[in-house]
Amino acid sequence: MTQVRTLAPPSPAVTESATEGRARPRPSPAAAMGTALGLFAAARLLGAAAVAMTAWATGGHPVLLLGRSWDSIWYLRIAGDGYGRSLHFRPTVVHSDLAFFPLYPGLLRAVTELTPLSGPGAGLLISWTAAAVAACGIYAIGARLHDRAVGTTLVLLWGLLPHSVVLSMAYTEPVLTAFAAWSLYAVLTGRWVWAGALAAGAGLARPNGFAVAAAVLAAAAYEILRRRGKVSHRLWTGAALAPLGWAGFFLWVGRRKGDLLGGYFEVQRLWGSRFDFGLGALRFVKHLLLHGDRLVFPMSMVIVAVGLLLYGLLIADRAPLPLLVYAGALLLVAVGGAGFFECKPRFLLPAFPLLLPLACALVRTARARPWHATLVVGALAGLSFAYGAYLVVLAHKPL
Q1: Under 8 Å CB-to-CB from 141, ≥6 apart: which residues?
Q2: Model-level pTM?
């Protein structure tokens, strides 16, 4: 590849030579995706088992820890009672439920109404289902850009991230990633209406869901410029749909707060979250280097630093434009935002394109030295399971 692409070409089909009847038939695309999904499920089930064993050993309840912790409690309350709850700590610190986007509480309400599941159980069902859907989308992107081995490895790496325990919790990251992965795949395959509709869904899931709309709009703008405006109505429709979810909730909160364009930012400011171009993060890094702190903080610093490095590699690999815009927007929010430093790795969890360079490298290693790749995966799994159990059960810090 010699230039940054906006739409990726289909991965080359592997056919058997007419003169070489010895070639083994390849598994079907569905079977290959099933393998990737099976590996992802195994990784997350083992991670959840590690959390459960740690919880039982310390007198905790694993279902409550996974289904009713931190942000999950806010979503459950919104699902049950609607918006309108605020906790006043002091004049400059007010935690309002208007900071939480509506898609996940809506899904929670629907599942609890239609099934006998309780709130935490419904939350876990939604998150686990969304994580599986996201894994399939991530595989589809990796297989399209490279090959099936890279797609499978990309999914496995995503399931073994240090913070991947969040994918097993009643949190919104799996839902956002599911919408994002399939929206980006739709862009790469020229399905503009689907891309825009899924981007709108992502925008209703989380504050950083705007990154999906940004990717769709950037790809659409590139196509319009490249073709000098001679594009189909489907592209225009997809571009118009993409920002509607995020912008709709943003304006609704602003109207409710009496400040159409600034209301949502005021809600976030009172939570202690604001965009300051990374000044707050740099001050906290200075504190860590001079005085140290609990494990979650230096670990968060390392993960964000690795994310920046991986983004540089993604640019060097000339990844398609929508992937660069999507991952870059998520990285910008994580690096440039102030407040809740320990949550930054979770904000990067949906940024799966950052793992593409690692997936390609691991596949090359597996083909040349299988045992080396096995050791790497084993080490990643050990870190993921142990650190995930620590985060959920022992750290007692917001995720």
Answers
A1: 151, 154, 181, 184, 185, 188, 323, 353
A2: 0.91
